[in-house]
Amino acid sequence: MSDSPAPAPAEDAVIRVRGLVTRFGRQTIHDGLNFSVRRGEVLGVVGGSGTGKSVLLRTIIGLKSPEGGGIEVLGCDRARAGESEWRAVQARWGVLFQNGALFSSMTVAENIAIPFREHTDLPLALIEELTATKIALVGLPPEAGRKIPSELSGGMKKRAGLARALALDPEILFLDEPTAGLDPIGAAAFDSLIRNLQQTLGLTVVMVTHDVDSLQAICDRIAVLIDKRIMVGTMESLLQESHPWIRAYFHGPRGRAAIAGR
Amino acid sequence: MKAGAAETGTLHAATAGDCWVLIASGSWTIGAAGKLAAALAAAKPGKARRAQIDLSRLAALDTAGAWLIHRAARDLRVGGIEVEVTGANPAQARLLERITEGAGAEAAFDHTPPHPVRAMIERTGKATFDALAEGRDLLAFLGLVTITVLRTIGQPRRLRLKSVIHHMEHTGLDALPIVGLLAFLIGIVLAFQGADQLRQFGAEIFTINLLGVSVLREIGILLTAILVAGRSGSAFTAQIGTMKVNEEVDALRTLGLDPIELLVLPRMIAVIITLPLLVFFADMMALLGGGLMAILALDLSLTQFLRQLEGAITLSTFLTGLAKAPVFAALIAMVGCRQGLKVEGSAESVGRLTTQAVVESIFLVMVADAMFSILYSYLGL
For A178, A210, B128, B161, which has the most beta carbons within 10 A of its beta carbon? Predict the structure, then answer.
């Protein structure tokens, strides 16, 4: 929605990562990542297994603390922010975990209502109406709200998780492999749902994915994790890259098929 | 966009001729939703036949705000008033349209409160049937395990010896410290309390009889069985339940392997072997603790203690206690494994069934102990 020209002005970056280093024990996962995410874009994060895509996501949302460098999300640096400042920023983003991560002892509607109950003081009736709105927004049938997560299919769990992530109308949406485990039709439907919501709600989306179709369909820019570094570009610019992994990824049989399909 | 808009949302209502005008300005976002909902509820159109909702002064709109606008328009239309929503920018119009599409579906929560008396009767009935079904299922499982045992006796090579030994280590060897310590302490308590009470009759020497008989016949075996039910029965449910969640049990079945033979039998045999050994150890530790206390409290010598003990107990006292161990062991292992195999779907049920396994196996151990008491009294033991 922000039709800003190509070099985004500095204040338009909602996430800024500088010199990020993460390690597990002696194993270095990321060695000096520098990139930023612009307001209103969909950024896809790709990389081979074990290159730390999910780790990057978890580091940005503060579930893992980095071993070096700085991350600024919506102008707030986790390392320097106070508890209350961090809480306030947390309410401005939503996260969809790989399998939805719905609380299994509650109904779908109760799951979605949690952020409202914890972060707002709205009357109960309004919370219920807003919950129903979210359920409709992600394309779930109304009766899904009364079910418990174990009664839902994988795709419905993801939609329910998305509804919970979107509860407080976040500015940034983090998605961890949103289409993994879905059939091609379900995956395409989920892609277009995310694109549609992103445009309607003016979201900035950061999604980790394996799915070349998703990248092709909805991502404005793509970040490739490679050799402990990150490379960010559009689909067009990455197609010109000569790095063997990138070539194998985009010019391999699946990559070619997805790109040919546009 | 919405990040920059700090001004909170407000609502102004005015009447222009027969048209009632609602002007929304500022940020209509979730933060202001409570206040705005109250303002909308308070605003009344009066006698106006037409209404206009003007959004041109909106600084920001999110789904909560869009819902409030949609709801206000809907309620006015229900009241027979013509409503026009004006001044929305393209993004806001898209959002409003999106909200309107999905509206009308508000039954996400179930509010029908159950009738209290009826609900209680329902629960009682359900619990009764569940208990009966549980008993029937347990019996069926016993049959299944028995058939598997008989088949394995026919083909002893099918028994997974390595697995049996692994489980013996975990249920037996690893339990020694806790079982020993608890038995030792119980022995001390028993001797101390017994001596205290019996001293009133001048019969404190019979503390040793009390200690010997109660430890060997009941306390040693019950204490150990309860500990093993808590330690190993629960572990069996958790292990097998986790495998069930991971579909490992289904994988076994498709590979033509029998989960009962592979998962249940080794655990059951392991507990049947180790529980009597643990009981023996617990008996000795309890007698040691009790003896120590008796010698100190009653000022006896070791020889006096041993002579009194010898007079109080016979081999059959010891054996009647020990004989229960294999039966209790089979019960504990069977309940633990069966609850594990009952796990369905989510990891949540692993936790619930683990609790149930412990409660059920302790309950069954107690019932079996009572039945043993009746049996022994018939046999005159």
Answer: A178
Q: pLDDT at position A130, please?
A: 87
Whether the CB-CB separation of A134 and B109 falls below 8 Å is answered with: no
Residues in chain A with pLDDT values less than 50:
1-10
Q: In the CATH hierarchy, which top-level class contains the domain A39-66+92-260?
A: alpha beta
Q: CB of A159 within 8 Å of any CB in chain B?
A: no
CATH (domain of B38): 3.30.750.24
What was the pLDDT predicted at B107?
61
Q: Which domain holds residue B87?
A: 10-102
Residues B237 and B353 grouped into a single domain:
yes
Q: What CA–CA distance (Å, rounded) separates B63 from A38? A: 22
Task: Give the number of domains in chain B.
Answer: 2
Identify the pLDDT of residue B367: 96
Mean pLDDT, contiguous 10-residue spans, chain B (381 residues): 57 81 86 85 79 85 86 85 84 83 65 82 93 92 92 87 94 95 96 91 90 94 96 95 90 87 94 96 95 90 91 92 95 95 84 94 96 93 79
Backbone dihedral angles phi then psi of residue A15, each to the nearest 5 degrees? -125, 130
Nearest CA in chain A to B107: A142
Per-residue confidence (pLDDT) for residue A2, from 0 to 100: 40
CB-CB under 8 Å, B63 with A137 = yes
Task: Tell me which residues of chain A, numbers 203 to 262, contact chain B at a CB-CB cutoff of 8 Å.
Answer: none
CB atoms within 10 A of CB B38: 13
Distances, alpha carbon B134 to alpha carbons B126, B128, B141, B342, B356, in Å: 12, 10, 10, 11, 11
Are the beta carbons of B345 and A150 separated by less than 8 Å? Answer: yes
Residue A61: count of CB within 10 angstroms of its CB = 19
Assess contact for B228 and B275: CB atoms under 8 A. yes
